[in-house]
Amino acid sequence: MPTIKYYLREGLLPAGELTSPNQAHYGEEHLRRLRLVRALLDVGGLSLASVKEVLGLIDAQDESLHQKLGLVQEAITTPSGAPLDPAAVDQANAYLDRLGLPREDHGVEQSRVTRRLAEALSAARQVGHDRFAELLDAYADGLRIMAEADVAYIAKHSKVDDVVEGMVVATLIGDAVLTAARRLAQVPVSERLIGTGD
Amino acid sequence: MPTIKYYLREGLLPAGELTSPNQAHYGEEHLRRLRLVRALLDVGGLSLASVKEVLGLIDAQDESLHQKLGLVQEAITTPSGAPLDPAAVDQANAYLDRLGLPREDHGVEQSRVTRRLAEALSAARQVGHDRFAELLDAYADGLRIMAEADVAYIAKHSKVDDVVEGMVVATLIGDAVLTAARRLAQVPVSERLIGTGD
Fold first, then answer.
1. Any chain B CB within 8 A of the CB of A82?
2. Burial readout B148-183 (b: 16 or more C-beta within 10 A, e: otherwise)
3. β-bridge partners, B23
4. Among residues A30, A163, B157, B166, which one has the fewest Cβ atoms lying within 10 Å of its Cβ?
5. Per the CB < 8 Å rule, is A194 touching B42?
6. Is the dihedral of CA A65, A81, A130, A188 positive or negative?
7. What would the pLDDT profile of A117-135 be if each residue is shown by its tens digit?
8. Domain range summary for chain A, segments of one domain joined by +
9. Which of A190, A192, A196 to mutate to test the interface with B (most CBs of B within 10 A)?
10. What are B141-184's pLDDT values in tens digits?
């Protein structure tokens, strides 16, 4: 297990319980932490420093699990830093309003996730798709259904490490599943709406 | 307009109608093609050779618009080439069945899009999330709603270049909008289902 030794040395895993001078016992909690560290490194592509930061957030005593999930979601999100079109920021804010998320907590200055949304809407405007946000409106019911599924998927675990690990996997691998599944879901709709037209 | 000259030289835009020995007139069709070429290069990140290939597909006489959209969707998709877990291929096939898409046309050997889906499901299995495909099942209704919105967004145009341009933008910028919007949609659900629990 060279990897585990490496994680121990880097402080990503707590030391096991010594059962003899050169043997340590690792229990269920260690296994959870190990799975989480691997998800953050391998699936999330996070640096060792970021993983340590995330583990610190998870181990903090004064935050609810919901708050921890939000902090981790931010930690695994990297905006491109592209300039934002003010009209796209308005569109992102309108989406926050729709979800009932206060702008003072979730605005583009407060949240990397919202910034990424505003960046994507800015990119759409830049290529002349000013009304792309209407598509986001039309997605709303679908997004709600998927968010319910995501949260149910991760909430079936009872330990915080498992919940966070589930969120990291569901978020990052979920992106790839979702974007591919979406293209396939378009095929029968296109066949029906466009197929025989031209 | 140095860019337009470059596109003309590379054969991505047809020559305009000569109105005098050194002036050419470019009409509405040229503008459509210009928008499409920019979407493929700038939004899609395609190479010049790929753009030419896509334009050839669009200009082919013997395919329906629906078929052209499918061919372009494939052309703008690049699987990672990661090894596929046979169980993940089964899960991807089950999704095709659900959409009514024949495996002999849309299987992992035939479609880069399906291959990408199977790659993502393989990645989930590799980190111990064997039941990730259940999440895909739970997404199904949401995905259908979004696919209807996507196709309606692109089908409001009447010219093939505009329809394809809309699809490229909606697909690629849509991925970024969707994955960010999904994270935000999780927040109120997490607050309700997880928030007060821990």
1. no
2. bbbbebbbeeeebbbbbbbbbbbbbbbbbbbbbbbb
3. B20
4. B157
5. no
6. negative
7. 999 999 999 888 988 999 9
8. 2-193
9. A190
10. 999 999 999 999 998 888 889 999 999 989 989 999 999 999 99
